Amino acid sequence: MLAPTPPMGWNSWNTFGGDISEEVVRQTADAFLDTGLKDAGYRYVVIDDCWSLRERGPDGRIVADPGKFPSGMKALADYVHAKGLRFGMYSCVGTQTCAGYPGSFANEELDARTFADWGVDFLKYDYCYKPAGADGKMLYRRMGQALRQTGRPILYSMCNWGRDEPWKWAASCGAHMWRTTGDIVDSWKSIVDIGFSQDGLEAYAGPNRWNDPDMLVVGLYGKGNVGFAGGCTDAEYRTHFGLWCLLASPLMIGCDVRSMTPFVKGLLTTKGAIAVNQDPLGVQARRIGEPWLHGEVWAKPLHDGSVAAGLFNRTDNEERLVPLAWESAGLHDRREAVVSDLWTDEEIGAFRGSYVASVGPHDCALVKVTPVT
């Protein structure tokens, strides 16, 4: 199985956009080891758009830009693999990619073979420049079949921005993950609009089939390719990461991992939060009840019988007391349970029936509730 738990890795787009290069990818792979990202579970190093020449070669194959990738993609994939990591690339269902480079329309089998020959382990497949009248589901199915025919296990990441409710059909096309929304940007509004809109999609997620609300903007701080939105505070990034972990979302880092702040490095490698994301039961969190006074709770059952919960405060400038009732989270309301803080990996205490957290504005408490037996 390629994706029994949500994929974890890094994608070049949010920081570098079209300024991607072999040097950046090699240094990023090195940083996975130097910063502890690999030890934390991150594996995929993925190149997004703008990696090829503007025209295909005489044999019809896509050609890596020799100015950006002088050693070629096979050598780069070998370098990443030598680090114990996996190598990912990007293409598009249309005649061109979103940035105007050659897409895979009518070349699915050739491109899939090319990627397999290079040693690609992950393909992000975008939705730009789809020919008029072409059926998007059919195009995604064609690439899924082409990838299977290569005989190489390639994780298939479908990126049609939530068009036509892909959570209902993408797995039948061979996809392991699929975008549920438009692109995220580095702003609190974007995190809220995308992350808190995922309620109701939990029935479609599970091992090898993951809803994808887009890449992480943690650590961009208003810089990079999507930094035009102004950036976020540390509390907002904590909410972003905590919610994505609860949602069993793929965790694809978008910041420059070569220069992370201590806070960003610590957040992205938080063991308790990652354990929630990678829980083998594979359940996506759901919202408990209705939001009230801009406070809300999302809960996710775990394989050991415990429950992870995020207690969120969406107010702009007020601290809130946010309650978590056992019964609403699927636990017996009179049962004693131990509450642990997943940000600090510390036990808070034993409680009966409910727990209340004091949460700052735009922040969240991330806890694990374990019934006492």
Describe this entry's structure for a reader.
There is one protein chain. The protein has helices spanning 13-16, 22-34, 37-40, 73-82, 108-118, 136-149, 188-195, 234-246, 262-268, 271-277, and strands at 8-11, 44-46, 86-92, 122-126, 155-158, 177-179, 210-212, 251-253, 286-292, 295-301, 307-313, 320-325, 336-341, 346-352, 354-359, 364-371. The two termini are 34 Å apart. Helices cover 24% and strands 23% of the residues. It has two domains: 8-277, Alpha-Beta Barrel (TIM Barrel), CATH 3.20.20.70; 286-371, Golgi alpha-mannosidase II (Immunoglobulin-like, Sandwich). The mean pLDDT is 96. The chain is globular, with a radius of gyration of 21 Å. With 373 residues, the chain is an alpha/beta fold. The protein contains ten helices and 16 strands. Strands 7-6-5-4-3-2-1-8 form an eight-stranded parallel β-sheet. It has a six-stranded antiparallel β-sheet with strand order 9-10-11-16-13-14, with helices on one face. It has a two-stranded antiparallel sheet with strand order 12-15. Strand 3, helix 5 and strand 4 form a beta-alpha-beta unit.
